[in-house]
Amino acid sequence: MLIFFSHEIFKFLFFSIYFKMRTLPKHSRVNFHKFNASMQTSHNNRPLEKRGPLYFPSVLEKYNFSDKMKRHIKLTASSQTKSTQLIHNRTLKHFKKFCNTKNKTLLTFSKKDLASYIEYLENSAAKKSAVVGLAGAIDFLSSALDVKSPWTPHIERMYQAIVRRASAEQPLTKKAPKLPTQYLTMAIDKHVTPFLKDPDQIPIVTLRAIVAQHLQYFLCARISDLLRLRACGIAVTTLGDTPAMAITFRSSNTDPRFQGSTSYVIFNGSDYCLYSLLVLYYNRLRLFSSDSSCLDTSFPLPRTSNGATSKSSRRVFKSIFQRFFPFKPSHISFTYGNYFVF
To answer: Structurally, how many domains does the chain consist of?
Structure first.
């Protein structure tokens, strides 16, 4: 009698739990532990975290510097991103050619020579691309050589004048057409879904481009704000009973007082869930969220030569959607906000 009674109780409990689970929403029947626990992976071998060689500007290679001075110049140059290094090097090459006509070098030019060069740019109707990087290049040169900057208020006024005049000649920017949202799902179907069993087979640059575009679209975030986002700026949390990710922007272009803002990504259990995509991306790059045991201050979307520049993401993203777009991928933008325009 006791055995029969225990058997009936077991059947009642089993079927009550079974039918309760059947009536729950789809996302409530998902094992959220595998998502949250996967954020705290123990792997520390990050494929992008490699210390690259120091950069020495080619425009300074022909000068005889001591080994200590060369080391100082390399460290000063390597404090900037790769694209900024190339811009400064190109600008100083043009300025070096002008100095040669005055029998001067980059080590011996004066304030008058710099003012004459600005007048030369104005008289030759130089384009904005050849003008706008001069102030940063001279500031870098002064820092690298450890000398007093020749950039005076008088030269600053002259520089602002030629930048303003060159900007007036810029052609108007064509407004980009809107990107249909189905192309985002196409990218996941083609480049992410086939490799879910082995995410390490997904190319990092391709996955980063897809994640960047999804974050821009769903969070209405600028690419400049996403590039400043740290790995510890994302935390796994819950909103009620639903898993979510809190993405905190410490600063942005519209937040000059650094008050910060937080956006939430909700798990919905679909094949195109941004929550699941971020978990996959963090595991692929071996990053740690702020709720894990590690304080990870690295950039999820790297901007320097240690990882890959944002321009490489643009190139990869163009190639991903090249076959989908009926128009040129160089004129693509999203529906809302200031999105990634190629």
So the answer is: 2
